[in-house]
Amino acid sequence: MDIKKRLIIFNTITVVVPFIIVCLTIFIFMFVSSKVFSTNISYDNFKKLAATKFELINAVKDVSKLNPESIETAGFQEYLYQKLSAINGEVIIIKNNSIIFASKDITKIDIERCLDEAKTNSIKKAVKIDNISYMVETSSLNFKDSSTGNIILLAPLEKSMDIFEKFIITIVAIFFASFVAINIFMSYLFSKRILKPISLLKKATAEISRGDLSFEIVESGDREIKELCADFEGMRIQLKDSIRMKMKYDDNRKMLVSSISHDLKTPITSIKGYVEGILDGVANTPEKTEKYLKTIYSKAEQIDIMIDDLLLYSKLDLNQIPFNYEKTDIAEYFDYCIEESAPELQKSDIKIYLKNDLKEAKYFIIDRERMRRVILNIIDNSRKYMNKENGQVTIMLRETNSSIIIEIKDNGSGIDKNDINKIFDRFYRADLARSGTKGSGLGLAIAKEIVEGHKGKIWAVSCENEGTSIVISLAKIS
Ligand SMILES: Nc1ncnc2c1ncn2[C@@H]1O[C@H](COP(=O)(O)OP(=O)(O)O)[C@@H](O)[C@H]1O
Ligand SMILES: [Mg+2]
């Protein structure tokens, strides 16, 4: 729910609920008063009260319209009496503090009370005379002999009408009390719904600023707050990623420095040795000099390859080179790879075959150049670590429901089962490889980066002295 909607609902509740409470109170009040106290607080009673008041006020108006002469006439007094008798009313006319007409026996004290009550501002001016409650209306009179007086009009109030007024006051009080109570309650609920998620968010941001980026921000509360939490969470993840990336950069740099110093030192040391040999005149024949120079050249080449591999690996590892995917004919592609590697293999007397068991799949989506590097690297390893006379490399293609499997199998030296999991690590070279053949120890690490860049998998199966299979699985085109 969004804050706007919640605000509308809460405000509606604050108005509607007190209204319902008031209605219920009215209902209960009416029910109890009619059943228990047998007083009827009905709309009729309300009408009756209003009518009585209206009659009294009308009668007062009639009096004020009259000229002073007629007030003292018996006709007028009779007219008033008749008019009020419809509501069982009484009329008292006072001149110079003495009663000149009274339809009811009334004491001087009661007259004073009536006059006092009439002066008050209350809505319902009432006095109790002889245990009967009357509604009072008065009007001052001017007689023709210029003496003054008052006219007092009384209308009896029923007991239920008395209760009626109290009832109205109670209802108004209940409405205000419930309105205030519900308002406070709703404001509390509303603030809780907003403040709780905000305090969680505050805690999370405090944790983040303290450097704890693993503190997950859980979305809670209303839509707007949830969106805010989601944005913060996005920010946290991005921050975490960038820190991870930075750490990886640092790690890579450290690794590069240490590997350069370690792996490049060996060929450089031998280059230095051979150059010294030439300078010192150890290579004293043209043949020897040529041999030395060739060795220097090959060591320099080795350094060159290593640096190239290092740069490529570091770029791949940091996802700096975009992949250029193309839909490629599988069989055609491997024919081309075989064609390219065949001359090198031929030099070492190694034969290469393609065994295509693909039935449905004809195409796959790859970055042709990068995948070529992977395949040629694996084939080159097979060549480098071949220890048999009749060397053989077979590329086997097959498929499962969802993948294309490429297996490059050789009958070379094989890999020790303790080393098999390490060969894809950067700079890993088995002792044998380290001592003899050229290489950076990055070939398979680069292959792994590239295959994983294709969302594929690469692994090795090997039997020492029997041969090695490097297996790649790539997703089929759906
Ligand atoms: N076909 C293979 N037969 C035997 N050993 C292999 C084969 N392929 C890879 N290896 C082992 O895995 C190591 C890592 O290979 P790689 O990353 O290509 O590095 P490099 O070829 O530069 O040594 C090699 O040094 C070698 O010990
Ligand atoms: Mg290699």
Automatic annotation (TrEMBL):
Phosphoprotein listed as a keyword: yes
Keywords (A to Z) from UniProt: ATP-binding, Cell membrane, Kinase, Membrane, Nucleotide-binding, Phosphoprotein, Transferase, Transmembrane, Transmembrane helix, Two-component regulatory system
SUPFAM superfamilies: ATPase domain of HSP90 chaperone/DNA topoisomerase II/histidine kinase (SSF55874), HAMP domain-like (SSF158472), Homodimeric domain of signal transducing histidine kinase (SSF47384)
Positions of the HAMP domain: 192-244
Key word Transferase present: yes
Domain Histidine kinase: 259-478
UniProt topology in membrane: Multi-pass membrane protein
PANTHER family reported for this sequence: SENSOR HISTIDINE KINASE CPXA (PTHR45528:SF1)
Name under which the protein is recorded: histidine kinase
